[in-house]
Design a protein that fits this description.
mainly beta, seven-stranded mixed beta sheet, four-stranded antiparallel beta sheet, 52% strand
């Protein structure tokens, strides 16, 4: 059974940078798009970045474009979401999800890593 585990969250100061990781075990991510989501308190879940299976294509929500960078290392079965110049509105639970090969659903989700930005 595939398992996704996020890490790298915590309390971070406004304007700093941090890297969030998504590590897979028990299966492969080689053939799947992966999306990072976040959910802030009292708000709906938001898809913020998606990367293709090969890692050559990435998309970003307008809310994070220019400050977030997604990458993946298929040899290590991991993904990284780099966040630069973090802002208070970035406070949220961040989690990764695997899109099924046929692209009709997210079939595996991590439990998330909490990012809290202090001003």
């Amino acid at each position: 059974q595939l398992r996704l585990v996020e890490s790298g969250g915590g309390l971070v100061q406004f304007g700093r940078s941090l890297n969030l990781s998504c590590a897979a075990s028990g299966g492969t991510l080689d053939y799947n798009y992966i999306t990072w989501f976040r959910q802030a308190p009292g708000k709906e879940r938001e898809g913020i970045s998606c990367i293709s299976a090969s890692g050559t294509n990435a998309n970003y929500a307008d809310s994070v474009k220019g400050r977030f960078t997604i990458s993946r290392d298929n040899a290590k079965n991991t993904l990284v979401l780099q966040i630069q110049n973090v802002k208070p509105k970035a406070t949220a639970l961040y989690y990764c999800a695997r899109l099924s090969v046929v692209g009709d659903e997210y079939d595996y989700w991590g439990r998330g890593t909490q990012v809290t930005v202090s001003s």
